[in-house]
Amino acid sequence: MSPPDYTNDARFDGLYLQIASQTRGIEPLLDTLFSFLRRKSDFFGEGDEKGVERAMDKVNEVLERHRGFILEEKRKEMEKKKKEAAKKEKPKREDDVIELGEDGGFDISNSIDSSAVVGDNSENASDETKQPASTETSPSDTAPRAESKEKQEQDDTPPPLGNGGTTDKYTWTQTLSELCISLPLPPNTRARDLNVIIGKNHLKISLKSSPTPPIVDDTLSKTIIVDDSFWTIEDNSLVLTLQKLNQMEWWDAPCQSDPKINLQKIQPENSNLSDLDGETRQTVEKMMYDQRQKALGLPTSDEEKKMEILERFKKSHPEMDFSNAKIS
Questions:
Q1: DSSP string covering 93-137
Q2: Distance in angstroms (rounded) separating the CA atoms of residues 122 and 109
């Protein structure tokens, strides 16, 4: 039976993330690791020169193995970019065409792009062409957007500290991947005095010796990964680190009964975004942009793309009449 492979094991990520957040640097993190091996194991042998050399050889062996993984990932990434570039160079498909309708109007088919311009249903085309589509937005449509924009401009409250908030029991912060709760404890409380139950959708915290109701007994706002979540006691406070299941969304509160924060005010740190891979970072930035646009009553990135495509086509074909076209 072959030994287990730990080269891509993510089970301990939560623990290492907590250590990294406290050591604040790669070198201090490595110091803690080798300090543990030196104090709690025979990794360095008897401490003689040969023992230290064997330890260094083993470290170099592991580093060389992971160097191979990095080079392989880089090679795959380059191949992926080449394939994507090749796809972009292919000629436009035949179905990416806006055709002239029987009634002289233009049916802008969704074959252009599912996220681009969506056309009218062919069964209703004849009825719709009887009434020219208005190119102006009605006052009833603009009113909610203007009201939303005005409300956003008037809301000058500062962004939540740590993208979190404070309840009557604890304070909390969050990143895209995890949520941290700091709950003050009675003096001299030890870990064995606590009963902490972390479920994927529920959190319960109580003192074993206390007849009073639990400190926290509530449903979580969203789902977490239980195996990657943990708790500890620091400075007489219970500190919980909850790993989010969906690591591409913000929470407005840890538990459902907690006061909600304004997600529009969240300002993720650049360092956190830079740690993401290119594709995930683009998705997160798009999500944040769309969120801001909706709050201001403005078009999202997909809606802007639709309008861009239509305007380009109009400029390319000034002889065509779009008054009978219904754009959605």
A1: PTTS-PEEPTTSSEE--TTS-TTS-----GGGHHHHTTSPPPSSP
A2: 10
Record the tokens describing residue 102, joined without a space: 């029987």
What separation in angstroms does the CA of 310 have from each of 137, 142, 303, 313?
A: 16, 21, 11, 5
Phi and psi angles of residue 92, each rounded to the nearest 5 degrees, phi first? -60, 140
* Residues contacting 111, CB < 8 A, separation 6+: 95, 96, 97
The rounded distance, in Å, linking the Cα atoms of 163 and 244 is 15
Q: What is the pLDDT of residues 5-19, one digit of tens each?
A: 777 777 777 787 788
For residues 258 and 254, give the distance between their C-alpha atoms in angstroms, rounded to a whole number.
Answer: 7
Tell me: the pLDDT tens digits for 197-240?
A: 999 999 999 998 888 899 999 999 999 999 989 999 988 899 99
3-class DSSP assignment, residue 12: coil
Alpha helices in 238-277 (DSSP H): 270-274
Q: What is the DSSP string of 216-248?
A: EEEEBSS-EEEEEEEEEEETTEEEEEEEESSTT
Among the residue ranges 19-23, 72-76, 155-159, the one predicted with the least confidence is 155-159
Cβ atoms 255, 203 nearer than 8 A: yes
Q: What is the residue whose two structure tokens read 């080269």?
A: 7
Helices 26-40 & 13-23 angle (0-180, nearest 10): 110
> What are the chain's domains?
13-89 (no CATH), 161-266 (2.60.40.790)
State which amino acid sits at residue 211: P
> For residue 170, how many other CB atoms are within 10 A of its CB?
23
